[in-house]
Recover the amino acids of this structure.
C-alpha cells in the first residue's frame, strides 16, 4: 500500500459513511498487558477507512469464553473493536463443525466428505444471529457494514431485518460452488436467503458470482441480470425476487495483497543478507523450489511432493542440484481431515528424503510452523520456482506475494488452474494439479526455463499485481457498495 494512496472507502469511493467490518476473527492477539493489533494485508487495507470514517470492527478474539467480550470494546489502532463471545462448544460446532467440516469441503469441490450435523447448523445460526445483533446495536445510522466470509453467510439478512438504514456488503473469500454441489446442503435455502440480505456480494471470480446466481434462480425463484456477456471478468449482476423491492448486486472482486509492504520488505538489507546465506545453507543447489501453504487438503501439497519425488525417481531432477523447501503452516488441527492430511504429508516427506537425501543434505526441507514475514520473504526471494498447486482455492495470495517480492524480475511461478489467481496470472506455468503427469511436466518446464522467458513472464505478472493491489480491491468494492 503506497503512502500516497487514499484510504479505500473515503476519497476514492466518495463515501463517508461509517464503515463497520464483521469477520469471524478480530485482528487482535492477546498479550501480557492487553491486546495488540495483528496485521495482515486485508487488515492494513481496511483499517484507515474504518478509522477515518469513525467505523468499528466486530469479531471473535480467538479465545473461547473470553471475558474480554464483557469488558466493552477494545480500543486499538484508533478504532473500536467489539468482541463477539464464543463458548468452547460453539467453536467446536459453529467453527470447526459447520464452517470447516461442512462448508469448507463443499465449497472446495467436495474434495473431502462434508459432515451435515443438525447441531452444527444450529450453532452456526445462533452465532450468526449474535453477530447480527451486535452489528445492529453498534452500527451508526446509515453505516456501511462489510461482512466477510463463509462463516457469516446468514448475517446479511439477519442484520437487514433489524436495520434497514445500513448498506450491507458481503465478500466470499473462498470459491462459491456449482449448484450441483451446493444443493447437497440441507440448509441451502437459508444460506441463500441469508446472503441475499446484502446489497452487494463480492466473489473472487466471475464463476463464483455465476454459480451463486444459478442457485438463487433455482432455489428462490430469483431473477438475475448481468450487465454484459458471460465471461466478462468485471461485470455486475442484479438479483431480484418476486414481491420484494430489495435487490442484491453480485460480481467478481479479486482480492490482492499490500504490494508496497512486500516490495519494501523484499528490498530491505536483512532480506538481502538472508537470501545469500539461505542458498549456502541449502547446499548451493542449482534450483530451489518452494511451497508455502496452510496445511490444508485443498492446497495440493501431497500431489506436489509426489510429483517432486517421482521426478527424482525418474532422474528428471537431481537431488544434488534440486531442493524443495515446503512451509506447511499448522491449521484447524481440531478437524479430522486436517490431522489425516498432516500425517500423509509428513509420511511423504520422510519417504522422499529417505530415498534421495544425502548426509547433511535433505532434498525436502519441511517446516510445520508459521514463519515470521522476515523469514518468509527471503524464501520467496531465493526460490527459483514457486509451486502453488491447490486443487481449488478462492484466490491464493501466496502466488501474488511471490510475484511482488521478485524485484529482480526472476523466478518462475507454477500455478494451479483451479485458483482465482490463475485468472490474472496467466504468465505463470499453469497446470491441472489433478493430472500427475502434467504436474511433473510443469515442474520440469519451470526448472529448465530460460532466463529470458522467466524475465518476460515475471515482468508481465509483476505489472498486473502492482496495479491491482489490495487497496484497489477494497476501493472498488466499497465504491460499488456505496453506489
Ligand atoms: C483464504 C482463501 C484467499 C502462510 N504461511 C505463512 C504465512 N502464510 C500466509 C501467506 C498468505 C496467507 O498466509 C495464505 O493466504 P492464501 O490466500 O494463500 O490462503 P488461505 O489462508 O486459504 O486464504 C484464499 C484468501 O482467503 C484471501 O481472500 O486468497 O483463496 O482460501 O498471506 O503469506 N505467513 C507467515 N508465515 C507463514 O509461515 N508470516
Amino acid at each position: 500500500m503506497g503512502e500516497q494512496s487514499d484510504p479505500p472507502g473515503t476519497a476514492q469511493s466518495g463515501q463517508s459513511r461509517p464503515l463497520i467490518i464483521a469477520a469471524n476473527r478480530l485482528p487482535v492477539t492477546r498479550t501480557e498487558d492487553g491486546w495488540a493489533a495483528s496485521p495482515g494485508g486485508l487488515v492494513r487495507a481496511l483499517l484507515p477507512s474504518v478509522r477515518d470514517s469513525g467505523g468499528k470492527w466486530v469479531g471473535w478474539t480467538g479465545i473461547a469464553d473470553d471475558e474480554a467480550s464483557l469488558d466493552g470494546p477494545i480500543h486499538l489502532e484508533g478504532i473500536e473493536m467489539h468482541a463477539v463471545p464464543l463458548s468452547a462448544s460453539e467453536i467446536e460446532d459453529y467453527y470447526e463443525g459447520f464452517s470447516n467440516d461442512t462448508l469448507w469441503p463443499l465449497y472446495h469441490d467436495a474434495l473431502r466428505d462434508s459432515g451435515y450435523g443438525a447441531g452444527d447448523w444450529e450453532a452456526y445460526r445462533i452465532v450468526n444471529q449474535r453477530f447480527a445483533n451486535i452489528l445492529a446495536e453498534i452500527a451508526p445510522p446509515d453505516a456501511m457494514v462489510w461482512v466477510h466470509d463463509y462463516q457469516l453467510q446468514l448475517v446479511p439478512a439477519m442484520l437487514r431485518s433489524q436495520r434497514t438504514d445500513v448498506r450491507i456488503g458481503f465478500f466470499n473469500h473462498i470459491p462459491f460452488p456449482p449448484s450441483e454441489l451446493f444443493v447437497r446442503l440441507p440448509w441451502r435455502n437459508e444460506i441463500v436467503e441469508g446472503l441475499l440480505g446484502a446489497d452487494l456480494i463480492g466473489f473472487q471470480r466471475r464463476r463464483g458470482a455465476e454459480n451463486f446466481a444459478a442457485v438463487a434462480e433455482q432455489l428462490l425463484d430469483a431473477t438475475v441480470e448481468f450487465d454484459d456477456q458471460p465471461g466478462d471478468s468485471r461485470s455486475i449482476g442484479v438479483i431480484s425476487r418476486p414481491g420484494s423491492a430489495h435487490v442484491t448486486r453480485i460480481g467478481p472482486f479479486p482480492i490482492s495483497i499490500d504490494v508496497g509492504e512486500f516490495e519494501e520488505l523484499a528490498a530491505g538489507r536483512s532480506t538481502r543478507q538472508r537470501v545469500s546465506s539461505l542458498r549456502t545453507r541449502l547446499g548451493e543447489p542449482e534450483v530451489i523450489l518452494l511451497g508455502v501453504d496452510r496445511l490444508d487438503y485443498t492446497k495440493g501439497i501431497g500431489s506436489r511432493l509426489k510429483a517432486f519425488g517421482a521426478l527424482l525417481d525418474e532422474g528428471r531432477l537431481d537431488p544434488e542440484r534440486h531442493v524443495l523447501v515446503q512451509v506447511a503452516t499448522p491449521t484447524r488441527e481440531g478437524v479430522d481431515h486436517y490431522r489425516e492430511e498432516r500425517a500423509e504429508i509428513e509420511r511423504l516427506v520422510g519417504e522422499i528424503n529417505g530415498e534421495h537425501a544425502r548426509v547433511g543434505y535433505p532434498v525436502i526441507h519441511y517446516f510445520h510452523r508459521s514463519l515470521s514475514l522476515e523469514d518468509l520473504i527471503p524464501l520467496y526471494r531465493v526460490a527459483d520456482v514457486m509451486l502453488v498447486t491447490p486443487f481449488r482455492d478462492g484466490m491464493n495470495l501466496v502466488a501474488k506475494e511471490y510475484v511482488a517480492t521478485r524485484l529482480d524480475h526472476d523466478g518462475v511461478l507454477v500455478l494451479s488452474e483451479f485458483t482465482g489467481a490463475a485468472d490474472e496470472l496467466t504468465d505463470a506455468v499453469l497446470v491441472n494439479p489433478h493430472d500427475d503427469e502434467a504436474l511433473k511436466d510443469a515442474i520440469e518446464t519451470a526448472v529448465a526455463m530460460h532466463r529470458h522467458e522467466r524475465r518476460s513472464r515475471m515482468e508481465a505478472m509483476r505489472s498486473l499485481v502492482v496495479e491491482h493491489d489490495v487497496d484497489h480491491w477494497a476501493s472498488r468494492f466499497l465504491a460499488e457498495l456505496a453506489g
Observations:
- Residues 1-14 have pLDDT under 50 and may be disordered.
- Residues 94 and 127 are 7 Å apart (CA to CA).
- Residues 19-256+470-482 form a domain with the Rossmann fold fold (CATH 3.40.50.2000).
